Amino acid sequence: MSPPPPPRDAFAALVLHRRPQRARVGLTLGFVRTFAVPEIAEVLSGTGTLASAPKARAKATGAMMFALIGHGVDSPAGRGIVAELAAMHRLPGVDAELMRYVLACFTVCPVEHAAATPAERGAAAAFAAALAAALRLPPLPGPTLAETAAWMREFEAARFAPSEAGQRLWQAVAPLFAARLPGPLARHAPAFGAALLDPPLRAALALPRPARPLRAAARLAFHLTR
Question: Where are the domains of the chain?
Answer without folding.
Answer: 10-177
